[in-house]
Amino acid sequence: MNDIEHIKSKILEIRGQRVMLDCDLAELYGVETSQLKRAVRRNIERFEGDDFMMDIPHDELLRCQIGTSSWGGSRYGAFAFTELGVAMLSSVLHSPIAIAINRNIMRAFVEFRKMVNLIKMDSIVSKDDLQALRQEINEYIDDILHDQNEINELTEAHLEVIDQTLIELQQNNRSPRRPIIGFNVSKEN
């Protein structure tokens, strides 16, 4: 099974939306689920709204028969990320692996969308038209991810400048040591 097919198998439909669960995304990114959740919670304003992420409670996971543990159920709820939420993850997870995996995930979502659109269409679209559409969408997604990465790099550069300026200010604010006030004891007889 190729990468995109493997990723497509991880896309679920919950509450009428195609989503990927935090545990599946963490596995793909090569990080712990708790690490992914911490990164999301630190940047929760990026994921506000059900069109980015849904918090799926424990009991709903059991009804969906998703996420079982050794004792037969999920211990915690899960974050379910929509296509927009997965795209936003690239601004939270900065590793090269996360960027590469995000590209494949975006491609898998696009393929899903195309399949659904083909089923809905009355007439069959030519293979060349689909390939051109795929190329156009892939370029669009790549441009968006590239722009996000540039913004992240620029933000990191600004933070480095701020850190360096603070260090310099701290060094400049240190006053020279004053001599110790007290008795001067010399050896005189």
Question: What this model shows, in words?
Answer:
This protein has 189 residues and is an alpha+beta fold. The chain has one domain (3-170). The protein is 58% helix and 8% strand. The protein contains 7 helices and 4 strands, in the order H-E-E-H-H-E-H-E-H-H-H. It has a 4-stranded antiparallel β-sheet with strand order 1-2-4-3. A hairpin with a 2-residue loop joins strand 1 (12-14) and strand 2 (17-21). Helix 5 (83-89) runs antiparallel to helix 6 and helix 6 (96-120) runs antiparallel to helix 7 (127-173). The longest helix has 47 residues, at 127-173. The protein is elongated and about 100 Å long. The protein starts with a helix and ends in a 16-residue tail after the last helix. Mean pLDDT is 76; it is low at 66-74.
List keywords for this structure.
189 residues, alpha+beta, 4-stranded antiparallel β-sheet, 8% strand, elongated
Number of helices: 7
The main sheet orders its strands as: 1-2-4-3
What percent of residues are in strands?
Answer: 5-15%
Q: Please summarize the sheet with the most strands.
A: 4 strands, antiparallel
Structural class given helices, strands, pairing? alpha+beta
Helix share bin: 55-70%
Give the count of structural domains: 1
Order of helices and strands: HEEHHEHEHHH
Q: Cα distance, first to last residue?
A: 95 Å
The unreliable regions are: 66-74
Overall pLDDT level: 76
Tell me the Rg in angstroms.
Answer: 26 Å
Strands, count: 4
Shape: elongated
